User: Fold these one by one.
Assistant:
Number 1:
Amino acid sequence: MLALPICSRAQVTDVTHLMKLIFGEGTDPQSWQMATRGVVGFGIALRLIRAAGRRSLGQHSPSDACVTFLLGAVLSRAVVGASPFVSTVAAAAVIVFLHRAVALLSIRWRWFEDLVTGREIDLVHHGQIDRVAMRHALVTDRNLQEAVRQIPGDKAIADVQRAVLERDGKLTIIGEPPVDGPGQNVNINPSTGMTACGWPRAMM
């Protein structure tokens, strides 16, 4: 049976003193102590984001936004000394654990995914605007017209086969298909105006 090393009170005191010397104490550390906190905080944030998974920075669902913003807010307190360093890192680790738990539960149960992420909302169907859905999605006519203008060619809302507000906040516009081919699919984020064009999925 292996004997575990037991740290004496003096050794614990020495380690605590060393940590205080390196990272400082309270909200008024030295500049080099703040720099050390920044280096360690960066490493911890990088590791936690890697643990959260690639989707935390790519999908932009509500749970992804929570982990991104909360990690920055929580870890910043450790860097500036507003909260105890170890306690702050522990809180950040719990946030990442919760994010992974939500992602795994969303994979297992569709109803849970709808609960935390929501569903896509159809705004236009064969050129007809659904005003109830527009109000529910908080999308204005100008948002919709801006998305339609991203479709190549002189298009109007009447030429739209389907307009969908996706779960990540982007507007997907599918134009009415021409006689000899499918329509064109355009994604636009109403908050940024950024677009990404591509061919749509198979038409139903």
Note: Residues 24 and 33 are 6 Å apart (CA to CA).
Number 2:
Amino acid sequence: TLSAKGLAQPLKIDFVEDVVVKTPSVRKFNGIPVYNVKDIYLHKIAATAGTRALSDHAGRTVMTGRNEARDFIDLYYLSKKVEPLSRFLEKLPALYQMGMIHWYRTYSRHDFSTAFLDENVYDSKLTSREIIGHLDGEIKKFVGEAAGL
């Protein structure tokens, strides 16, 4: 976390290991190179959905990503402020779409709600219920549109 002139709140920076975007759009922010917000969005989806397909105990192909509260919070804000998750998913390869649907069907709402309490969220009015409701609604909307409903 960095403090920078002109920012009302500290800037939190994460470093990623996986390279999802081969030629990212990079801009300078206070002299620090950062990915374009759409590339960050894609990386958050890849972190949540996973980047590799595996077989589960029944032989089905599933994606396994990480289940970190901070990723869900970031996806919530990206969906609200950049582009709705349902629309963003429409543009992605099927692997990420399947991964997000699998995540939606399997993530523990209780575990997220508990972990959310430990996160340092700047918006003190934001609740885990609001995040869960929004992300679940966006995935349901995407699934409905993909199925032609």
Note: The beta strands are 26-29, 32-35, 53-55, 61-63.
Number 3:
Amino acid sequence: MPGMQAHRALAYVFWHWTRPTVDADRYESMLRAFQESLLANAPTGYRAGAVFRHGSAAWLPGRDRCYVDWYRIDGSAALDALNDAAISTACRASHDAAAGLAAGGTAGLYELRRGAVAPGEVRAATWFSKPAAMTYQALESDLADRLPGGGVELWCRRMTLGPTPEMCVLAASAVALPDAYGAASVPMESIWFAAARSAPAIPVHGDAS
């Protein structure tokens, strides 16, 4: 989206799914163990993490059991530190244990455009793209009128890293949008979330730096 600035609130969003024979409780236990390990050894720029059970979606394999991790970071420079921390000596065992049960994954990088919602309150993600005939300025104006004043977050894809949609609204329930947006709402259920102790508050798009 035009006009984005560096060092904004970003999220590395990673979808993953297991092989059909993998026990869900075992996999989720390993996911929590890895997240706790990463939190205890939080890299520079890591703000918070959350893991959700994720419903089926067009960009995911046709499986009933999918998951999505949201890694909130201080900007794109924090991606290197996050990647290195995930496979560091402190985290490698728990990372590899979970990864060994996964059948595949895909990811995207998103920027927080507006709003705030506690991870534990998120029950749905509404994914959509800007209508071709609409400017981004008009899109943001329209969404400002349509989205509730609180309890929602609007995210926009920062780079095209995979087949995931351009924009997302995280909220306690699905958000209704016009047909032109091609919106698809996906149910989500939180299984883990936490914030790094030293995570600083950084501005979302449009706030003063």
Note: The radius of gyration is 17 Å.
